[in-house]
Amino acid sequence: MRISSILFALVLLITGCAKHKNEGIFHSGRIDYKITYLENNLVSISPNMLPKKMKLEFNQEYSTNVIEGFMGIFRLNNITHFKHKRCSTLLEILNKNYIYLGKRGDEMCCFESMEDMDIKYTGETKTIAGLKCHKAIVTLNDNKEKFDVYYTYDINLSDPNITNPYKKIDGVLMEFQLSLSGLKMRFTAESFENTVKNTMEEPAFPKNSNEVTREQMAHIISKLME
Protein backbone atom coordinates (compact mmCIF):
# COMPACT_ATOMS: atom_id res chain seq x y z
CA MET A 1 0.00 0.00 0.00
CA ARG A 2 2.79 2.39 0.87
CA ILE A 3 4.54 1.78 -2.46
CA SER A 4 1.29 2.30 -4.37
CA SER A 5 0.66 5.54 -2.51
CA ILE A 6 4.14 6.82 -3.27
CA LEU A 7 3.82 5.94 -6.96
CA PHE A 8 0.43 7.66 -7.12
CA ALA A 9 1.88 10.79 -5.51
CA LEU A 10 4.75 10.81 -8.00
CA VAL A 11 2.33 10.57 -10.92
CA LEU A 12 0.33 13.48 -9.57
CA LEU A 13 3.50 15.52 -9.11
CA ILE A 14 4.74 14.83 -12.64
CA THR A 15 1.41 15.51 -14.30
CA GLY A 16 0.93 18.62 -12.19
CA CYS A 17 4.29 20.02 -13.28
CA ALA A 18 3.60 19.22 -16.93
CA LYS A 19 0.04 20.51 -17.15
CA HIS A 20 1.03 23.94 -18.47
CA LYS A 21 2.73 22.38 -21.48
CA ASN A 22 -0.51 20.61 -22.47
CA GLU A 23 -2.99 23.24 -21.38
CA GLY A 24 -2.98 25.36 -24.55
CA ILE A 25 -5.82 24.80 -26.99
CA PHE A 26 -4.51 27.20 -29.65
CA HIS A 27 -1.59 26.20 -31.86
CA SER A 28 -1.53 29.20 -34.19
CA GLY A 29 -2.92 32.71 -34.32
CA ARG A 30 -2.38 36.43 -34.28
CA ILE A 31 -1.98 38.80 -31.33
CA ASP A 32 -2.22 42.58 -31.69
CA TYR A 33 -0.48 44.64 -29.02
CA LYS A 34 -0.78 48.27 -28.02
CA ILE A 35 2.54 50.04 -27.40
CA THR A 36 2.92 52.65 -24.67
CA TYR A 37 6.15 54.50 -23.93
CA LEU A 38 7.44 54.50 -20.37
CA GLU A 39 10.63 56.33 -21.21
CA ASN A 40 11.54 58.25 -24.36
CA ASN A 41 15.05 59.68 -24.74
CA LEU A 42 14.49 60.83 -28.31
CA VAL A 43 14.71 64.58 -28.86
CA SER A 44 14.16 65.17 -32.56
CA ILE A 45 11.27 62.74 -33.18
CA SER A 46 7.66 63.56 -32.35
CA PRO A 47 5.90 60.98 -30.15
CA ASN A 48 3.11 60.92 -32.73
CA MET A 49 5.49 59.31 -35.24
CA LEU A 50 6.50 56.45 -32.96
CA PRO A 51 5.01 52.96 -33.42
CA LYS A 52 1.68 52.45 -31.67
CA LYS A 53 1.04 48.79 -32.50
CA MET A 54 2.84 45.46 -32.78
CA LYS A 55 1.51 42.40 -34.61
CA LEU A 56 2.57 38.85 -33.74
CA GLU A 57 1.58 35.95 -36.00
CA PHE A 58 2.66 32.41 -35.14
CA ASN A 59 2.26 28.70 -35.66
CA GLN A 60 4.29 25.74 -34.43
CA GLU A 61 7.16 26.47 -36.83
CA TYR A 62 7.58 30.23 -37.08
CA SER A 63 6.52 33.54 -35.62
CA THR A 64 6.66 36.97 -37.23
CA ASN A 65 6.79 40.03 -35.00
CA VAL A 66 6.12 43.32 -36.82
CA ILE A 67 6.44 46.92 -35.56
CA GLU A 68 5.73 49.87 -37.86
CA GLY A 69 6.25 53.58 -37.27
CA PHE A 70 7.36 56.97 -38.60
CA MET A 71 4.19 57.31 -40.71
CA GLY A 72 4.80 53.96 -42.41
CA ILE A 73 8.43 54.72 -43.29
CA PHE A 74 9.84 52.24 -40.73
CA ARG A 75 8.99 48.53 -40.46
CA LEU A 76 10.85 46.12 -38.18
CA ASN A 77 10.10 42.41 -38.54
CA ASN A 78 11.68 39.74 -36.33
CA ILE A 79 11.16 36.20 -37.62
CA THR A 80 11.72 33.37 -35.14
CA HIS A 81 12.32 29.77 -36.22
CA PHE A 82 11.29 27.78 -33.14
CA LYS A 83 12.84 24.49 -34.22
CA HIS A 84 16.23 26.04 -34.97
CA LYS A 85 16.09 28.50 -32.02
CA ARG A 86 17.09 31.27 -34.38
CA CYS A 87 15.73 34.73 -35.16
CA SER A 88 16.28 36.81 -38.29
CA THR A 89 15.52 40.52 -38.59
CA LEU A 90 14.18 42.47 -41.55
CA LEU A 91 14.28 46.28 -41.41
CA GLU A 92 12.44 48.21 -44.13
CA ILE A 93 13.09 51.95 -44.49
CA LEU A 94 11.34 53.48 -47.50
CA ASN A 95 12.63 51.44 -50.45
CA LYS A 96 15.66 49.99 -48.63
CA ASN A 97 15.65 46.58 -46.96
CA TYR A 98 18.23 45.30 -44.49
CA ILE A 99 18.39 41.76 -43.13
CA TYR A 100 20.30 40.20 -40.28
CA LEU A 101 20.38 36.40 -40.24
CA GLY A 102 20.60 35.54 -36.56
CA LYS A 103 22.62 32.68 -35.17
CA ARG A 104 21.22 29.76 -33.19
CA GLY A 105 20.67 30.72 -29.56
CA ASP A 106 21.02 34.47 -30.09
CA GLU A 107 18.31 36.88 -28.96
CA MET A 108 16.42 38.89 -31.53
CA CYS A 109 18.00 42.11 -32.74
CA CYS A 110 18.04 44.86 -31.51
CA PHE A 111 16.33 45.04 -28.13
CA GLU A 112 18.02 45.32 -24.74
CA SER A 113 18.94 41.84 -23.51
CA MET A 114 18.06 42.25 -19.79
CA GLU A 115 20.56 39.55 -18.83
CA ASP A 116 20.21 40.18 -15.08
CA MET A 117 16.47 39.48 -15.10
CA ASP A 118 15.05 37.88 -11.96
CA ILE A 119 11.51 36.50 -12.17
CA LYS A 120 9.07 35.94 -9.29
CA TYR A 121 5.95 33.91 -10.14
CA THR A 122 2.99 35.16 -8.12
CA GLY A 123 0.18 32.70 -8.86
CA GLU A 124 -2.12 35.64 -9.69
CA THR A 125 -4.13 35.62 -12.91
CA LYS A 126 -6.24 37.93 -15.05
CA THR A 127 -7.86 37.83 -18.48
CA ILE A 128 -6.18 39.69 -21.35
CA ALA A 129 -7.60 39.62 -24.89
CA GLY A 130 -9.86 36.75 -23.88
CA LEU A 131 -7.03 34.52 -22.61
CA LYS A 132 -6.20 33.50 -19.05
CA CYS A 133 -2.89 35.13 -18.12
CA HIS A 134 -0.48 34.53 -15.24
CA LYS A 135 1.38 37.29 -13.45
CA ALA A 136 5.11 37.45 -12.73
CA ILE A 137 7.21 40.23 -11.24
CA VAL A 138 10.45 41.03 -13.08
CA THR A 139 13.39 42.64 -11.28
CA LEU A 140 16.30 44.28 -13.13
CA ASN A 141 19.46 46.20 -12.33
CA ASP A 142 20.01 44.82 -8.82
CA ASN A 143 16.48 45.57 -7.60
CA LYS A 144 16.48 49.10 -9.05
CA GLU A 145 13.69 48.36 -11.51
CA LYS A 146 10.59 46.21 -11.09
CA PHE A 147 7.57 45.63 -13.30
CA ASP A 148 4.81 43.10 -13.89
CA VAL A 149 4.50 40.81 -16.89
CA TYR A 150 1.63 38.56 -17.92
CA TYR A 151 1.81 35.42 -20.02
CA THR A 152 -0.64 32.72 -21.10
CA TYR A 153 -0.66 28.94 -21.35
CA ASP A 154 -3.86 28.99 -23.42
CA ILE A 155 -1.59 29.05 -26.47
CA ASN A 156 0.37 25.83 -26.92
CA LEU A 157 3.86 26.74 -28.13
CA SER A 158 7.13 25.07 -27.16
CA ASP A 159 9.71 27.64 -25.91
CA PRO A 160 7.74 30.65 -27.25
CA ASN A 161 10.33 33.13 -25.87
CA ILE A 162 13.45 31.29 -27.00
CA THR A 163 14.75 34.34 -28.93
CA ASN A 164 13.66 37.17 -26.62
CA PRO A 165 14.81 38.30 -23.14
CA TYR A 166 11.96 36.38 -21.43
CA LYS A 167 13.18 32.90 -22.35
CA LYS A 168 12.78 31.77 -18.69
CA ILE A 169 9.00 32.16 -19.07
CA ASP A 170 7.38 29.23 -20.88
CA GLY A 171 4.11 30.98 -21.72
CA VAL A 172 3.24 33.38 -24.55
CA LEU A 173 3.74 36.98 -23.44
CA MET A 174 0.60 39.12 -23.30
CA GLU A 175 1.85 42.15 -21.33
CA PHE A 176 5.55 42.95 -21.02
CA GLN A 177 8.33 45.50 -21.55
CA LEU A 178 11.23 45.93 -23.98
CA SER A 179 13.74 48.69 -24.70
CA LEU A 180 14.88 49.73 -28.17
CA SER A 181 17.41 52.53 -28.85
CA GLY A 182 16.38 54.81 -26.02
CA LEU A 183 12.71 53.80 -26.08
CA LYS A 184 11.31 51.86 -23.12
CA MET A 185 8.11 50.30 -24.38
CA ARG A 186 5.29 48.37 -22.74
CA PHE A 187 3.31 45.97 -24.91
CA THR A 188 -0.26 45.03 -23.97
CA ALA A 189 -2.27 42.52 -25.98
CA GLU A 190 -5.55 43.98 -27.21
CA SER A 191 -6.85 41.12 -29.34
CA PHE A 192 -6.19 37.49 -30.18
CA GLU A 193 -7.42 35.63 -33.27
CA ASN A 194 -6.95 31.94 -33.96
CA THR A 195 -6.81 32.57 -37.71
CA VAL A 196 -3.27 31.70 -38.82
CA LYS A 197 -2.82 28.33 -40.55
CA ASN A 198 -1.06 25.61 -38.59
CA THR A 199 1.35 25.20 -41.50
CA MET A 200 2.63 28.07 -43.57
CA GLU A 201 5.49 28.78 -45.92
CA GLU A 202 8.75 29.96 -44.43
CA PRO A 203 8.73 33.79 -44.33
CA ALA A 204 10.74 35.14 -47.27
CA PHE A 205 12.92 38.25 -47.47
CA PRO A 206 12.62 40.79 -50.33
CA LYS A 207 15.06 40.01 -53.15
CA ASN A 208 16.68 43.43 -52.94
CA SER A 209 17.58 43.07 -49.24
CA ASN A 210 21.06 43.99 -48.05
CA GLU A 211 22.52 41.53 -45.54
CA VAL A 212 24.17 43.23 -42.55
CA THR A 213 25.76 42.19 -39.28
CA ARG A 214 24.01 42.46 -35.92
CA GLU A 215 26.12 45.51 -35.06
CA GLN A 216 25.31 47.20 -38.37
CA MET A 217 21.59 46.58 -37.91
CA ALA A 218 21.68 48.07 -34.41
CA HIS A 219 23.59 51.09 -35.77
CA ILE A 220 21.04 51.68 -38.55
CA ILE A 221 18.17 51.62 -36.08
CA SER A 222 20.07 53.87 -33.66
CA LYS A 223 20.74 56.45 -36.42
CA LEU A 224 17.08 56.35 -37.43
CA MET A 225 16.08 57.21 -33.86
CA GLU A 226 18.34 60.28 -33.61
Report on this model:
With 226 residues, the chain is mainly β. The protein has two helices and twelve strands, in the order αββββββββββββα. The longest helix is centred in the N-terminal third of the chain and has 22 residues.
Give the name of the CATH architecture.
Answer: Clam
CATH C-level label? Mainly Beta
Q: Shape, please?
A: globular
What is the rounded distance between the termini?
71 Å
Number of strands: 12
Helix/strand-derived class? mainly beta
Number of domains: 1
Number of helices: 2
Q: Nutshell version of this structure?
A:
The protein has 226 residues and is mainly β. The protein has helices at 2-23, 214-224; strands spanning 29-40, 53-58, 62-69, 74-81, 86-93, 96-101, 118-128, 131-140, 145-152, 172-180, 183-193, 210-211.
